[in-house]
Amino acid sequence: MNAAAPIVSAKALTKRFAETAAVDGLSFTVNRGEIFGLVGPDGAGKTTTMRMLAGVLPPDTGSIVVDGIDVVSKPEEGKQHISYMPQRFGLYEDLTVDENIRFYADLFEVAAGVREERAQRLLTASGMSQFRSRLAGQLSGGMKQKLGLTCALVHTPKILLLDEPTTGVDPVSRRDFWRILYGLREQGVTILITTAYLDEAERCNRLALLHAGRILYCDTPVALKQRMPGALLVISSPAGRKVRAAIVGQAGVSNVILVGDGVHVVVDDPHTCIPELGDALQRAGVPFTGIVAGEPSIEDVFVSLLENTGKTQ
Amino acid sequence: MFARIIPIVIKEFLELKRDKWARFRLIVPTLVQMLLFGYAATYEVYHVSTAVLDLDHSQESRELISRFTSNGRFDVVKVAQSQREITEAIDRSDAAVALVIHAGFAELLRKGQNAPLQVIVDGTNSNTALIALGYVGTIAQGFAQDYASDLAERVQGVRGMKQIQVTLEQRPWFNEDLNGRWFFVPGLIGTLTLVIIVNLTAFAIVREREAGTLEQIMVSPIRPAEFILGKTVPFFVVGLGEVALIVAVGILWFQVPFVGNPLVLLLGSALFLLSSLALGLLISTLCLTQQQAFSMNFFLLNPFFILSGFAYPISSMPQLLQWLTYVNPLRYYLVVIRGTFLKGVGLGVLWPPLAAMAAIATVLLTTSILRFRKSLE
């Protein structure tokens, strides 16, 4: 197998449910050993794509090749190498942490010694080694997700598919989670992750922005930021809503995003816009403490790119 | 080849062990139903509430009525004075049977003619009415015969001019007292096991679908046959326990005799359990939610009882329904149960129902394995 060739290659995938196309002509490739993020709003087709890759949902048209295996025609062969963790990992709540791990290990015929070594390592990494005999039903949401990840990783997959693994998980658990993912990447596991948290998207090697079953942009986070038309200004103000009301529609302003301590504004030209916006706010009597050029976050980029798509459509 | 059956079996047993309700569900309703059927389910009719209207006021009419009161089958709850009171008693369900002796009853008898006894029965419970009518007939006939021989004796002055009768020498085999409990209690092994096993298994896959664990199983390399067979084994063991419990209560508590070969019963039970399990699993593969599985159970189980010969004789059913009984495993199991419990017959007689159950189990299990797709569509 050529190490440089993409490990996942999806071409022109389409999946319709009744009248709506959940996934509409999706094509992308994932390189060996990278963390690839699928980002998009609810209903963009992230879960449907994941299920098709996992071999449990046949696409209407298109092809999926995972590590040389045609997953559409031979889904069972792909399952040996793929580990799929859905949004809600199916744990047996009446079984203990250890019993759940053992069950999933046995399904993949993992030898007992290997299982024990891996379980220990993964549970230690996620801070759960003292809960091994606790019933899964009595774990917190974050611990359940970490146990799910442990179960999903107890066999050595080449590709890990994670569907919104950190939704509803506390920040500490999320950090543990990402630490484990980085560790896996070092071991050569390719990771495909969907997320609605855009700060997490920045942690990926490459990102695909998904909207209405199509990929709008697919690139590294840095390159995506450069694609953002215009520049970002950060206006600090205790009255974000009033700021937005005062500057929407001003010449050169294309996008206004409310944030906690003010607004982010996407503008054509920061040099002319900074004084103009300052004047506009003063005229409107809106209090603000500063207008400076800022580094766009992936959220700014995403919202801005989505807005542009809406306008061109 | 089938290595992944074992983790499924272990997992099912662990879940069953942790489920405190499961033990209750498996034992208590079974015992309660056994006691109910054992004590309350009987076709025999005793103490039929009876109203009497005697418009003849003769020695003969009083003699006839006394035969009813002394019998134990009938309780005279009302001695009416008019036809209207009889109607009222039946309407209000105070009496299920009314006997009316019209004026002139004795006179006809004395002339050696046929005399009418009017019997009104509340036909709303047709079964009780039919059986009560049978008793009325027997009592009236007994009275008539005795009266006729008395009359003959008086008129001809000789004893011995006896009327010719056919006397029945009743000899019921296998259940000499025709004890209804001996019929019902062994049948319960089949019906109760069917309910419990189909219920357990019908939810077995649906529950995993709802919990999201099924999706996890689908993305694993497990084969459908491994999954379905892994689900079968634990419920099979539970089912054998149920059968043992019901058999033990039947023999030890209700004193139903067991004269046959226990191994034949075991074989029959094993085949029946496999058919019931397969039926439940098939329901489970067809349903998407536990709610659907529940409705499907409800819809299916009653026809299985009715078309089994558990309570209603198959030979009395319309031909079409009789054909349907041939695909009902309970029908065959009841033959095996009654054959081993009461008749004591062996494989030589019971092989056809055993073979039929084996065939049903094979078809249903294969169908559920083929039906189980590792796909979310």
Structure explained in plain terms:
The complex is a heterodimer of chains A (313) and B (377). Helix content of chain A is 37%, strand content 27%. Chain A is built from 11 helices and 14 strands. A 6-stranded mixed sheet of chain A has the order 6-7-8-3-9-10, sandwiched between helices. Chain A has a 4-stranded antiparallel sheet with strand order 2-1-4-5. Chain A has a 4-stranded antiparallel sheet with strand order 12-13-11-14, sandwiched between helices. Chain A folds into 2 domains: 8-224, Rossmann fold (3-Layer(aba) Sandwich), CATH 3.40.50; 229-295, Alpha-Beta Plaits, CATH 3.30.70.980. In chain A, helix 3 (97-107) packs parallel to helix 5 (141-153) and helix 4 (112-125) runs antiparallel to helix 5 (141-153). Chain A is an alpha/beta fold and 313 residues long. Chain A starts with 7 loop residues before the first strand and ends with a helix. The mean pLDDT of chain A is 87. With 377 residues, chain B is an alpha/beta fold. Chain B folds into 2 domains: 5-41 and 180-371, no CATH class; 48-156, abc type-2 transporter like domain (abc type-2 transporter like fold, 3-Layer(aba) Sandwich), CATH 3.40.1710.10. Helix content of chain B is 66%, strand content 6%. Chain B is built from 14 helices and 4 strands. Chain B has a 4-stranded mixed sheet, sandwiched between helices. Chain B is elongated, with a radius of gyration of 29 Å. At the A-B interface, helix 2, strand 6 and helix 3 of A face helix 1 and helix 8 of B.
Uncertain runs of chain A: none
| Discrete helix count of chain B | 14
Strand content of chain B: 5-15%
CATH architectural name of the largest domain in chain A = 3-Layer(aba) Sandwich
Q: Report mean pLDDT of chain B, rounded to a whole number.
A: 88
Q: Strand-and-helix sequence of chain B, N→C?
A: HHEHEHEHEHHHHHHHHH
What would you call the shape of chain A?
Answer: globular
Note the beta-strand portion of chain A.
Answer: 25-35%
Q: Determine the oligomeric state from the structure.
A: heterodimer
> Could you tell me the radius of gyration of chain A in angstroms?
23 Å
Helix vs. strand class of chain B: alpha/beta
Q: Quick one: biggest sheet of chain B? A: 4 strands, mixed
Helical residue percent band of chain B: 55-70%
The structural class of chain A is: alpha/beta
Name the chain pair whose interface involves the most residues: A-B, 32 and 27 residues
How many discrete structural domains of chain A?
2
